[in-house]
Amino acid sequence: MIIKVCGMREAANVREVEQLGADWMGFIFYPQSPRYVGEVLAYLPERMKRVGVFVNEDSDRLLALAEKNRLNILQLHGNESPDDCKALREKGFPVVKVFGVTTDKPFPWGLTEQYEGCCDYFLFDTRTNLYGGSGKKFGWEILSGYRGGTPFLLSGGVSPEDVEAVKRFSHPKCVGIDLNSGFETSPAVKNTQLLRRFISAFR
Predict the structure, then answer these.
(1) Model pTM?
(2) Confidence band (pLDDT; 50, 70, 90) for 102?
(3) If one looks up domain 2-202 in CATH, what number appears?
């Protein structure tokens, strides 16, 4: 299972988290986010795949930032179309498309069907009025309705107390989890002790 730690920024904290054994590290290039990294990463981890998180970004600027920061994977958190995803894949980047989920109403699975064959992964996060980062959970059982062929990562308010629940969660297409605000001492600063214990217990 892929473990992704997202919303990183500070160089010292990135170095510490790099040692914990996670697989992917996410950096948010959306200026309205409290975890915005700016134009250039303060430190580029080499032990983990570097994921750039973008929201409705101009494709030329996105690709320039990806090259400048040697990104390995692109995560799209806005209203990007299937064609947008496909175009970035054709540039050689694996693409993760994010979908917001709420528990109070059925998810329109026809939406994910439109992105089949255009993305390498989906990521299911809690729907908010903003673009992610709410720290809130949704009812993971709703994902039993997903019948697509694209593998996905589970996100949305995963906290240190959720390790056993995450281990119990089962779906044939779930290939990883995304950890962010539930492990922070402040926006973009992760508690490495909490992450170490979670990753150790999860593995």
Answers:
(1) 0.95
(2) confident
(3) 3.20.20.70
